[in-house]
Structures are given as structure tokens and as C-alpha cells.
Amino acid sequence: MEGSNELSNHASGRAIDLNAPAHPMGKPNTFSAPQRKAIRKILDFCEGVVRHGVDYYSGRKDDMHFEIDKGASEVARIARKIRGLSAPRPPSTPKPPAQPAKVVVDGKLGAATIRRWQQVMGTPVDGKISEVSSLVKAVQRLLRSKGHKITEDAGASELTGVGVVR
Ligand SMILES: [Zn+2]
Questions:
Q1: How many Å lie between the centroid of ligand 1 and the Cα of residue 76?
Q2: Contact present, 2 and 10 (Cβ < 8 Å)
Q3: Are 31 and 90 in contact (CB under 8 A)?
Q4: Which of 21, 43, 60, 148 is the most exposed place for a label (fewest CB within 10 A)?
Q5: How far is CA 59 from CA 9, 10, 15, in A?
Q6: CA of 147 to the centre of ligand 1 (A)
């Protein structure tokens, strides 16, 4: 039935008729199966705040009709949910370049020294020398490039005697 409710819902802006010529009242299944699926997804997302004319009119199809079926606070909640979907991600603030670690001349191979060393060598900076270390490899490559004969698989312990030469 074309009820006064529907008219007043349109009048108050709570209802829309979507593309009426393509989805005329009384004609069933004017939306394709994929469209119906998409509509169902949107209605589910709206958690009952929006309802579709096909769902609650008995005896008459009204494919074009969508209306708000809940109060203002529920509408506001779903509006926030929708905005959350499309909200642009906050721009990631670029990290300031890492300050060079302060190196103290104390003869100890501490994290600060290793970190700085890794920065200089252009390897990942974690302040640690792993058992198989990209820092040590970089040093070994550097030594080789300078004519020192050193194998790349020499361990960190051998590094202490830099110039572990074969
Ligand atoms: Zn309508």
C-alpha cells in the first residue's frame, strides 16, 4: 500500500527512491543478482538503520525505495561508521633522521659503537653483531676490496684480529 508513512518519510528526507524509472514500484527483481548482493551488504553494514522497500512491503515490491528506520543517535552512529570507511589515513609523519649514536672512546665494542659503525657501513642498524652479521660481512668486503685476503664467512671473533689474513 502506498501509505502516508512512506509519503511522510520522503517529505522529511528519511526516504529516497533510487532511480525510479529503472526500478519502478511493483516490478520485482529490477536489480541484478550482483546488485542485490551489494545492496544486502550495504544494508548489513547499516545494521538496520536503513531498510529497503523490498524487505518490508508485503504484497508490493518497491525496489527503488530506501529509508531510514531508526532514530537520530543510531543514524549518527552509522554515519560515523561510514565516515570511518572513507576517512583518509592520517599522513605518516616522516621520521627525523636518526641522530648518529654518540660514540665514546673507551675501547669497548658497545651498542652505540656498533650502531654508528652499522650506519657508516650502510647495513641494518640494530646495535648488535649477530653470529652471521651483515656488518661483519660489510667490513670483510671492505677489507677484501682493499686487498686484504679474508673470507666472508670468517666469524666475528676473528674480526678482533682484523687482518685475519689467509
Ligand atoms: Zn519511496
A1: 22
A2: no
A3: no
A4: 21
A5: 20, 21, 20
A6: 85
**Amino acid making up residue 16:** I
If you measure from the C-alpha of residue 52 to the centroid of ligand 1, how many angstroms do you get, rounded to a whole number? 9
111-166 confidence digits (pLDDT tens): 889 988 898 888 988 888 988 888 888 888 888 888 877 665 544 444 444 444 44
What are the residues whose beta carbons fall under 8 Å from the beta carbon of 88, sequence distance 6 or more? none
**How far away, in angstroms, is 43 Cα from ligand 1 center?**
16
Structural contact between residues 166 and 151, judged by C-beta atoms closer than 8 angstroms: yes
Distance (Å, whole) CA 103 – CA 81: 51
At position 15, the amino acid (one-letter code) is A
Cα–ligand 1 centroid distance for 26 (angstroms)? 12
Confidence of residue 104 (pLDDT cuts 50, 70, 90): confident
CA of residue 60 to ligand 1 center, whole Å:
12
Report yes or no on whether pTM surpasses 0.70: no
